[in-house]
Amino acid sequence: MSIAEFTTTFSPTTTAALRRPRRTQLDRAAKGAVLGAVAAVPPITALHLSATDPIEPSGWTISDYVVSLPQGTLLFALTTGALAVGAAALVNGLGPIPGTRGIRVLLILWASALIVAAVFPTNLRGTPQNASSDI
Description:
Blueprint: H1 12-19, H2 25-49, H3 62-68, H4 72-94, H5 101-119, H6 131-134
Helix pairs in contact: 2-4, 3-4, 4-5
């Protein structure tokens, strides 16, 4: 049998700190991602609820809603911006974790695609395509 010697003594504050869970960078990143996802719900809901008779929700894409409705571009930009911020928070939180490079690259590409979709809206239905709608 061996005897273990501890050079440090544990004070009551140290043991209390050991019992209390610590907030890690990933915890904060997850919270930021959830907040981004929750913040994206109201503008996209308002966008869908503002659809009127000529818009067909079952056959049109979201990009058709965006250009057809008043304030559609703003609502879509708020939605995609909130989701992109959430993705950026996750990328930041996953940074120090080994083996997450592929996930971080996919999140960055997804967030970039969201921003591109908001910056380059499509054209109105029935009108000729332009550079923005091609992008």
